[in-house]
Amino acid sequence: MRLELRQLGKHFVTRHGRVDALTGIDLTIEDGEFFVLLGPSGCGKSTLLNLLAGLERPTSGELRFAGEVVAAAGYRAWRSPPERDVAMVFQSYALYPHLSVYGNIAFPLEVGRKTSKTGIDAAVRTIADTLQIEELLPARPAELSGGQRQRVAIARALVRKPRLFLLDEPLSNLDAQLRAETRVELKRLQQELGVTTVYVTHDQVEAMTLGQRIAVLRQGRLEQVGDAQELYWRPANPFVGRFVGAPQMNLLKAHWRRDGDAVRLNLGGQELVLTGMDTTLFVDRQAGPCLAGWRPEHLHLEAEGKGPVLVGRAGLSEPLGREYLVHVNLDGAELTVLEDGRPPAAGETVRIWPEPERLHLFALP
Amino acid sequence: MRTSALKSLLTLGGVLFLLLFCLFPFGYMVLTGLAERPDFLRRQQRLSFTLDHFRDILTTPSLHFLDYLRNSLVVSFVSAACAVAIAALAAYALTRLRIPGKRPLLFGILAISLFPQVSLVSYLFKLMIGLGWINTYPALIFPYIAWTLPLTLWILVSYFAQIPLDLDRAARVDGCSLLQILRRVILPVAAPGIFSTFLLAFIFAFNEFLFALMLTTDYQARTIPVGIALFQGLHGEIPWGLIMAASVFTTLPVVAVALFFQRRIVQGLTRGAVKG
Amino acid sequence: MKFEREGRTGLLFLLPLLLTVLLFIAVPVAGTIYDSFFRDVTFLPQQFLGLENYRVLLVDHVFFQSLGFTLLFALASVPLEVVMGLLFALILNRPLPVRGLLRAAILVPWAIPAAVSGRVFELIYNFSYGLANYLVLAFGLSDQPVNWLGTSYGAFAALVFADAWRTTPFVAIILLAGLVVLPEDLYRQATIDGASSLQQFLRVTLPLLKPVLIVALLFRTIDALRIFDVIYVITAGGPGGSTNALSLYSYQYFLSGDFGYGATISVVLFAIALLLAILYVRVSGFGKEPT
C-alpha cells in the first residue's frame, strides 16, 4: 500500500507553550517498501509513527493510504486505527500480561473482526510457525525472554496481514548480538511478506542495513531522504553527515577560494590546494566560508607522496580491533583518523592526507 | 556485638509491644464474651467460661443481631461494588483520556474526603425523609457510595496510572474501541488492585456510623455498628457479655479478611494515602 | 470548540462519579450551609434569620467549650498517634519473618468499626471491673481505681488513648509507605561514613520522611477534629458535656429537631476542616500522570 504524506505536521500546546513536533513532512512511501525513519531522540519520529497509526491527529497537512485521505488537519477526514488496517510493534512490545502468547496473537483477530474460531486458530499457528515461536504459545509474557517477547509482538502485528506495518525502535531493548541476528530475520520476513513497513530507529547501522530508503529527521523536520548509499556518500548537510556513518565525520571550519580549476581550502592557517573536485557546488561564487567534512576512513596517516597534507599533533589512539581511531590536534581543531597500521605515539607530529574526492563541503549553518 | 544484641532486643521488644498494643482489646473482647460475668477481673470473682452469650446473641430474635448483620453485609457489599465500578470508569478516564480540568477535579475529590460527616447528615436526613427512604437500604447505599468514592478513586487512579499507556495504544491499533480497551485490557490487568480496593471500600462502608445512626430507625435497616453502640440491655446492668459476643462475631470476619489479605490491603491503603 | 471524541467519552465516564458526589455530598453540604441561615426547628415555622444563628453561636459558651475540647483533643491525640505510628512503621519496615502477622495485627484496630472498639474501651474504662483499673491497681500506679469516665480529665485521657489506638495503624501505614521508598544505598553510605543507627535515623530517615510526616499530621488533625463515633459510644459527650466534640454538639441539636442551629455548628466545623483540607491538598502535592 502506498503512503503519501503531504506537508504533514503536528504541534502540541502544553503548559510551556507550543511544541512543534513535526513540520512540513513530505514523503511518498511505495507499496511493499521497507522505509526507515532515522533520527536522534526528540526528533519527532515516534510522533510521525503515531500519526501513521492514527493514534494522533495531524495539525497540518494530510495523509493518504492508497490514495484515500485517512487523516487531515481540521478534522476533515479521519480513519481510526482499526479502520486503517495498520499493525504496530512498540519499543516496550506492549504484550497483554494477562493473556497467553496465543491469546496475545489472537487478540486482534478476536476484537471486532469476523473471523471464525477455526480461522483464528489457523492464522495464529501459521504466524507462530513463521516466527518459530510455536512452543511458546501457552506461555505468559512474563515467562519469556526479551527476544521471545519481541517475536510475539511481531507475530501479533502480522497475524492479520495488515497493509501497513509500523515498528517503533523494536530492537533497542535487545543485546547487541541478538539485535544483529534479529535485524537479518526482520529484513527477510519483510521481503517474504511484502508488506509496506515503516521502521523507526535512532541507530544508523540499523537504518542503513534494513532500509530501502531512509528519512533522516531532526527536530521535526526532514533533513534528507534517500537510500543508504546516498546518505553516506552525499549527505545534504552537516547534520546528516555526522549522524550517518561511524565513526563520525570530521567537520572543520574552513574558507575556500577558487583558483582556476583548483580549489584552495584554508583550514585554520593550513592551506590545501585540491584539484579534480566537483565545482558545481560553488555555482558562480568565487570564495566563501564553509564547513569541510571528511570521514575518518578517508583521512590517511600514510601521507608520503599522495598529495597536499595537513600537519598536526597526535593525541589518544583508541583501539577498535582491526583499526585505531587516532585523535589529531590541528591548531586547536580536533580530527579523528581511522588507521589500520601502528598508531602514532601521543605528541608525535603527524601528516594527514585527505582524499580530495571525499571532501564534503557544506555551507555554514 | 553488644549493639547488635541490643538492637535485636529492641526489635523483639518493639514487635511484642506492637502485637500487644494492637490485639489486647480484641483479646479482652473475646474473654468477656466467653466469661459468664463481665466483672471477672474483680479480685473476688472466679473466671468461668460459657458459650451462652454467643448462643444468645444469635438466637434471640428480639436482639436483632442477625438482622443487623444482614443489613450491614448487604449495604456494604452493594455500595462497595458500585463505588468501585464508578471509580474504575472515572479512574480510566482520568489516567488515560485527555480531559480538561483533571487536576482540579482530583483535588476537589480529595478535599471532599475531608468533609465532616456531620455537615452532610442533617440535609441527608431531610432528603431521605422527602424520598420516603428513611430506614431502608437505599438511604444508606447511596450516601455510602458517595462517601467511599474519594478513597476508591484515589486508590484506583494510582493503580491505573501504573499500567503502561503502550498497552492502550497496542489495543487501539489491534482494533479496540475505548470501552473495549477498558474491558479487555485495563480491567483484567488491574484486577488484583480492583479487588484490594473493593475490600477497602467494603470495610469502610461496614464501619460507617453517623449516617447509619441518623438515617435508620430500627432493625429493618440498622447496621451493626449502630446496633452494637445502642445496645443497652433491658435492665439496669449493661449486658457486656452479649455485647462482646456480638462484637466478636462482627470483628472475626473482618480480622480474618485482614489476615488473609493483609498484603493487598496495606498496598491499597498505601496507594490511597501517599498521594502523588 | 469541537470536542474530540476522546474528550467526550472521558466526560461520559466521569459522569456517574460526578453525579453521585454532587447529589449526595455537594448538595447536602450546600443544604446544610443554607439551613444555618434559618430557624429550622421541627414543629415551628421556618424563618429566615440571616446571620442570627452565627451571632448566637459567638456568645454560646457551650460552643466554645466544645471547640476548646475538640482542639485540645486533636492536639493531644495526633502527636501521640504519629510517634507511635512511626515506631510501628519502623518495625514493619524490617524484614522480619513475622511480617505478615504484624501487618495483619496492625490492621485490626483500623478494621474494627469505631463503634465496636468504642464499646470495648467503654468496658475497659469501667470503674469497678474494667481492664484499665485492673492494670492500674495491679501495677501499683495508684491505690485507688481511677474514675475514667466520670471525670473530665479522666474522660479526656480515656478518649485520647482510645482514638489513638484506633488510628495509629493508619498513620503507621502512611509512614511505612514513605519509609519503603527510601533508597537502601543511603543507609549503606551512612554506615560507611560512620554513622550509628540512631544517627542514621535522626539525620537520614527523619529529614527524608518530613514531607510524609507533615501529610500524616495534617490528615490526622483534620480527622481528629471531626471525630464522632468513638466519643458518642464511650462518653456521649459527658461527663457534664466536658467531652462534647463539635460534631457531637451539632448532632445533639439535630436529634432534638433543631436543624438550623445544628447546621450552624456543623458549618463552623466544615469551615475549619475545609481550610485545613486546602492546606493538605497543597502540601500533599500533585498526582502524577502516566507518561
Describe the structure.
The complex is a heterotrimer of chains A (365), B (276) and C (291). With 365 residues, chain A is of the alpha+beta class. Helices cover 24% and strands 36% of the residues of chain A. Chain A has helices at 45-53, 81-84, 101-110, 117-130, 146-158, 176-193, 204-210, 228-233, 238-243, and strands at residues 3-14, 17-29, 34-38, 60-65, 68-72, 86-89, 164-168, 196-201, 213-218, 221-226, 250-259, 262-267, 270-274, 287-294, 299-300, 310-319, 324-330, 333-339, 349-354, 360-362. Chain A starts with a strand and ends with a strand. The relative contact order of chain B is 0.14. By secondary structure, chain C is mostly helical. Chain C has two domains: 27-59 and 245-284, no CATH class; 75-243, MetI-like fold, CATH 1.10.3720. The relative contact order of chain C is 0.13. Mean pLDDT of chain C is 86; it is low at 286-291. Chains in contact: A-B, B-C. At the B-C interface, helix 1, helix 3, helix 4, helix 5 and helix 6 of B face helix 1, helix 3, helix 4, helix 5 and helix 7 of C.
Spell out the key features of this protein.
heterotrimer; B: 276 residues; mainly alpha; MetI-like fold; 12 helices; C: 291 residues; 2 domains; two-stranded antiparallel ribbon; 1% strand; disordered C terminus
Mean pLDDT of chain B: 87
Radius of gyration of chain C, whole Å: 24 Å
What's the number of extended β-strand segments of chain B? 0
Q: The CATH topology of the largest domain in chain C is what?
A: MetI-like fold
Number of DSSP E strands of chain C: 2
Helix/strand-derived category of chain C reads mainly alpha
Give a short synopsis of this structure:
Chain A is an alpha+beta fold and 365 residues long. Chain A has nine helices and 20 strands.
